């Protein structure tokens, strides 16, 4: 029972992190591996368990969603779900080492972009002599590849979304947080559907249920907390989470 309680609390922390700034997978995955699940199964369990929490967070933010660039919410969500499903399929047929090796560098790049992203569009505009702005097609292509990454591994995919939107569209991380949460829910949802039918996650029902319940509570509470934070504080929290998660991933090797 103490181990199940630990998984429950881990789910609360993961759901809250995803709602506030991202990085919930970095909490959930190591805890599940420590519990004794194989890494691939733990990855699938964490993705399925975090879906309801992500959906709960997205529901809290439902009135604050806004198009990203020239892309509507529906179009972005659809491409996120397709990419999430593709990524989940890759997880089931490919070794995790390929994405695992690239993840620290992807996170480091995303963290740097988040830290300096508000200045980068102006700097690039000065160098190129014209405004920097991603087209709608470029936004969708970028979102698709990020969703594939999210379906396959998921670690800090929301942070990399914010980084892409920051550098490509000049969007503020705090203002984009509601859409990040919604797209995270879309990616995890499509991946979870595949995992439920094609992986061994149902072999650990108590673990799955404990993390699921915790993630719902954490996701709901985290979203309400994030809405009460100032834009500057929320931006600082998102950046701090990105720095810590990047450092942990490099340390983990």
The secondary structure category is mainly alpha
**Helical amount:** over 70%
Distance separating the two termini: 32 Å
Coarse morphology: globular
Percentage of β-strand residues? under 5%
- String of helices and strands: HHHHHHHHHHH
Unreliable stretches (pLDDT < 50, length at least 5) are none
Number of strands: 0
* Whole-angstrom Rg: 17 Å
- What multimeric state do the chains show? single chain
* Count of the domains: 1
- Give the integer mean of the pLDDT values: 80
Largest sheet: none
Q: Can you count the helices?
A: 11
Give the helices and strands, then pairings.
Layout: H1 2-20, H2 24-35, H3 39-60, H4 73-93, H5 97-116, H6 120-128, H7 136-152, H8 157-169, H9 173-198, H10 205-228, H11 231-252
Helix pairs in contact: 1-2, 1-3, 1-10, 2-3, 3-9, 3-10, 4-7, 4-9, 5-8, 5-11, 7-8, 7-9, 8-9
Keywords:
253 residues; single chain; mainly alpha; globular
What does this protein look like?
The protein is mainly α and 253 residues long. It has one domain. The protein has 11 helices and no strands. The chain has helices at residues 2-20, 24-35, 39-60, 73-93, 97-116, 120-128, 136-152, 157-169, 173-198, 205-228, 231-252. It is globular. The chain starts with a helix and ends with a helix. The relative contact order is 0.24.
